[in-house]
Amino acid sequence: MNVVFDTNIFISALVIPNSKAEQAIIRIIEGSDTLLLSKEIVGEILSVLSLKFHRDREAISHVAFYLSDLARMIKPTRKIRLFKDDPDNRILECAVSGRADVIVTGDKEILKLGEYEGIKIISLKDYLNI
Question: What is the pLDDT of residues 85-97, one digit of tens each?
Fold first, then answer.
């Protein structure tokens, strides 16, 4: 299954040990699903880690390398402007261009959609129960 994780999933996995988000990343590592990422999503993750969690450059560099190694990188082919919060639009762009099966998020605005262009939008809890 091709999966796009919202930024909040990555941040939780990286900041909270033994979290449900970390379980989702382990599922990707074990090869159960294929993670799709774009340069824009990686940039958002690194920005949040740097600005909100004060991670140093070396830690940020390790995360960038790890994510690029873990995921299949997607170059979105079209712009989507559905949400006010631009990073949420980048999630949809990656999912559509990468032909994702599922978007996993804790973002209530994204979850409200339920589905976008045939891509299911589910919570972390629902993803872990698939």
Answer: 999 999 999 999 9
The CA distance from 91 to 4, in Å, is 7
Tokens at residue 16, please?
Answer: 């909270």
pLDDT tens string 1-20: 999 999 999 999 999 999 99
Q: H helices then E strands: how many in the chain? A: 7, 6
C-alpha dihedral, 17 to 55 to 92 to 24, nearest 10°: -10
61-108: per-residue pLDDT in tens? Answer: 999 999 989 999 999 999 999 999 999 999 999 999 999 999 999 999
Q: Which CATH number fits domain 2-128: 3.90.850.10, 3.50.50.60, 3.40.50.1010, 3.40.50.12100?
A: 3.40.50.1010
The CA-based dihedral angle spanning residues 92, 38, 47, 64, taken in that order and rounded to the nearest 10 degrees: 150
